[in-house]
Amino acid sequence: MRSDFWRNNIVLLTALFILAPVGLIVWQSFLTDAFFSARARPTADAYSFVLSDPGFRDALKNTIILSVGMVVIAVPLGSLLAFLMVRTDMPGRKWIEPAIFLPLFMSPMVLAFGYIVSIGPSGFWSVWWQQTIGVPFWNVYSMPMLVLVVALTHVPHVYIYVATALRTVPSDLEEAARVAGGSPLTVALRVTLPLVWPSIAVSAVLVAFLGFELFGLPYVLGDQDGRLVLATYLYKFNTLLGRPAYQLMAVVVIFIMLATLPLVMLQRRMLRSAQRYSTIGGKATRAHLVPFGPWKWVALAGVLVWLYAVVLLPLSGVALRSLVTTWGPLVSIRDVLTFDNYHKLAELPLIRRSIVNTLLLAFIGGFASLCVYVLIGLASHRSQARGTRALDFLVLLPRAMPGIVAGLVVFWIFLFVPVLKPWVSSLVAMWVAYTLVWLPFGLRLVSNSLGQVGRELEEAAHVTGAGQARVARDVILPLAKHGLLAAWLLAFLLYAREYSTGIFLMGQGNEVMGTMLVSLWNGGNIDVASSLAVVNTLVIAGGIALALRLGVRLDA
């Protein structure tokens, strides 16, 4: 009985944590003014204003174009990459795979800076190309380039799903096709990929959904031409109207969630179907690699070109830009080399504080969030109660909420609740927003770790008279500790790279590196921004190195 009481309380608190932000958004969208204003009256005028605004229609169109473009480019490339890595004898696969996951943990703001300083109008590569070959044929601020960049950086999302499926598919059908005279390409297109089609479809829905969350890359690469997507349109509302228009912002949030929630639910349904998908196979569970002959070197070259485009190109640009005072077509690097930009990081209190706050939030905040996820995971662990089944669907709501939206609504809640208002510009508010944003992902990691504990061990503990709390403390948590440690390290990486969640919450004292990068870009301080981007990347690289050292799977 006490177990059910504890479980129900956790479920209710979690439901309140999820539904309160959603309810506040809906309520605010039907008001004439800010929800905390005495002048606020019920109305639907905000919906009429947004729907009639050409800027909103353009932002929606651009978002759809980006989302579709990501699916068209990232899904085939990610599927092909998974096939090359898992099913062929392409050389270097062991050391290439960790590099494939790097774009997942790199801050999109860092990538955006890197592309501007590398292939922008005055970028290092652009200047070299113009001096040696002629006028560059690319325009980093164009819509096709934006689509290409965001698609290439989302290839790892597809790779994770397809590679996981390929590792579970028996190889006897492929062997039969090769014996019948099929070429490696024919076998891949007609046998292997159709067998993992459900996973490919799931990854396509995921990529389409992520297209509606984009902020960093469209904000930096699209801002030059005033090209907005839904997330940047939401962010620009403060400057477009000269004052915060909470009711209009809430309407935009509603439309984002209406577009993303069905995609999230579809992905969930398809993922469950993919997990039940089976193939008829006889002998081997271990795949035999497809011999690619001389083509394996062509495949390796193609993978290295992609890694250069999404990792080395932007990172090298940011690193070089952080070491020069200025740059342009007539500037010699030897004349402008300097470490002054890094000295500024140490001299500026805001920058120093943002680095310390990021480490605190990623390390301590990540652990605190993990504790929250563990409590929720234990409450729903092996439970068939209606409340926990309902919670299983409620956790989809934060997944449909981009980081910038979660930060905005947490900002509103801290303004609305008097006891929370003094903390609105603190790391506490930032931590709450991060915990909400990553709740679905963190809960999935925790549930996977708890689910690996054998049911018979828990039942044996119950037979000896142990209650639910004792079983959790003495059986489940000790046996799941390695998985929970991995979840903590992944939370560290995600919190260290996060940038959009804290944009509306940033105030004096709670700056983090991600939000400072946005602020520095707005102020045109690209020198210090590049230096801070390098520091942010080094922090994330250190976390990845530690995770790999401890055997953590980055594709979790």
From TrEMBL:
Residues 60-267, 355-547 form the ABC transmembrane type-1 domain. CDD domains: TM_PBP2. It is a multi-pass membrane protein. It is found in: Cell inner membrane; Cell membrane. One of its GO terms (biological process) is transmembrane transport. Keywords: Cell inner membrane, Cell membrane, Membrane, Transmembrane, Transmembrane helix, Transport. The chain crosses the membrane at residues 64-86, 98-120, 140-166, 187-212, 245-266, 297-320, 355-379, 391-417, 423-446, 475-496, 528-552. Its main location: membrane. Gene3D superfamilies: MetI-like. SUPFAM superfamilies: MetI-like. It holds the Pfam family BPD_transp_1. GO terms for cellular component: plasma membrane. Belongs to the binding-protein-dependent transport system permease family. This is Iron ABC transporter permease. It comes from Falsigemmobacter faecalis.
